[in-house]
Recover the amino acids of this structure.
């Protein structure tokens, strides 16, 4: 018996139930606010919008969208190339200045930006992977 006069198993069950209810309320509230989740690019237009927001004056004309939506390569009229990649619940962007961080493996193009903190990403670009890899060789020349 506890100090309140209830058996210990009943108090334990009440605490457990209360904790579960609190967790479910917090999860519902996080979902209501749109927190967490699996963030992915749903279209080339969305990737273009994110690229424009990342760098003023960057107006993409060509997009290589990863099949899973985890990233994209974008090129503007001036030939500059931007890499978009998922970073937590958002997307981060970096300019690609040369081809030294690029590696092609069939439909997959592995890239790393000049900024080492940005890390490396492998994009599944399908049949476009070879064309993107070839075009990256012309950067910085």
């Amino acid at each position: 018996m506890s100090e309140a006069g209830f058996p210990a198993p009943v108090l334990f069950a009440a605490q457990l139930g209360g904790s579960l209810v609190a967790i479910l309320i917090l999860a519902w509230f996080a979902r209501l606010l749109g927190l967490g989740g699996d963030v992915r690019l749903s279209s080339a237009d969305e990737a273009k919008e994110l690229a424009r927001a990342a760098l003023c004056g960057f107006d993409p004309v060509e997009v290589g969208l990863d099949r899973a939506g985890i990233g994209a390569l974008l090129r503007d009229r001036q030939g500059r190339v931007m890499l978009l990649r998922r970073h937590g619940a958002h997307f981060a962007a970096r300019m690609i200045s040369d081809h030294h961080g690029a590696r092609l493996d069939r439909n997959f193009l592995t890239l790393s930006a000049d900024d080492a903190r940005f890390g490396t990403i492998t994009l599944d670009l399908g049949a476009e992977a070879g064309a993107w890899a070839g075009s990256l060789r012309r950067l910085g020349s």
